Amino acid sequence: MVTGETAAGGAAPTGPDPRTPSAHQLRLFVALAEELHFSRAAARLFITQSALSQQIRDLEKRLGVRLFDRSSRAVTLTPQGRVLLADARGVVAAMERLSRSASTQARRLSGRLVVGTIGAEAAMPYTHAVLRLLNERHPLVQVDVVSLHFADHFDALFRHDVDVAFLRPPVPPGVEVQHLATEPRLACLSASDPLADRDRITLAELARHPVIDVPPQVPRLWWDFWAADPRPDGTPVRYGPVASDLEGLLHLVAQGKGMCFLPAAARDLFPRPGIRYVEVTDLPPSTAGLAWLRENRTEPLVEAVVAAAGHVASARDRGAARGRSQVED
């Protein structure tokens, strides 16, 4: 037999089978079977009573069975109608599931999100948690993670080289942050420094130590915080040579050219020959967060990653609250 022809040699039928009911007609059938009243069913379906009657007659013709007994007083299901009602409901429910699934797929985000990280932020647990949740919620989004120098990590946001960045506040105007973590800051000293073997020191003891500086394009607001400038007693901070990235900064410290303050995580993530990390008892802690440009807050991809960061932060807060409650109990 040749494909596309009947056994008798005629052309095979094409198009939908005229005996197959439409999903719309099955919805009308289910509604009328539930109401058993043409006027009420038509009102529920937002169509006219005559249109409903016509569609039901056409459905009965297609199926070859009478579905309803009609009289001037009542509408009742025929025995055949009662049997077919269960199947019709199954088809209508399946079509509704298909529609919802299609709607969900249509709303799924896709595209490329460029995420910047500074220092060791790419390795931090909260960064992994945010990006993992983003992938679970929006698997079609391609996430590219790029490493940024502290000399230009804010510029990367303002130039739109990255969409968001995991970084350490404070941030300049125009940038918003979702807080993700808090941890102490440590003094990073040359191993030859007399204070390097101490367990704890104070800011006053570091008053005469020069602090490694950063290039002029770095927002001063940010580096003043990381240099602890000004000091609590008003002592002016002396600055030493300039470093534009973390490795350069650590190299200068190891050479004894100056010191710096870094998050406590640096002790484990950036051990280097010739440097020591020492706790500073009166140094305020640092925070970590996800940052984005305020003007881009409503961009769909930015909204998605910010929502994931908010969820991770909320889960962290709930866990901390439970921990405090257990300690109190």
TrEMBL record:
PROSITE patterns: HTH_LYSR. Residues 1-22 are annotated as: Disordered. The keyword Hydrolase does not apply. Residues 1-14 have a biased composition (Low complexity). SUPFAM superfamilies: Periplasmic binding protein-like II, Winged helix' DNA-binding domain. The keyword Kinase does not apply. Gene3D superfamilies: Periplasmic binding protein-like II, Winged helix-like DNA-binding domain superfamily/Winged helix DNA-binding domain. Keywords: DNA-binding, Transcription, Transcription regulation. Residues 21-78 form the HTH lysR-type domain. InterPro entries: LysR_HTH_N, LysR_subst-bd, WH-like_DNA-bd_sf, WH_DNA-bd_sf. Belongs to the LysR transcriptional regulatory family. This is LysR family transcriptional regulator.
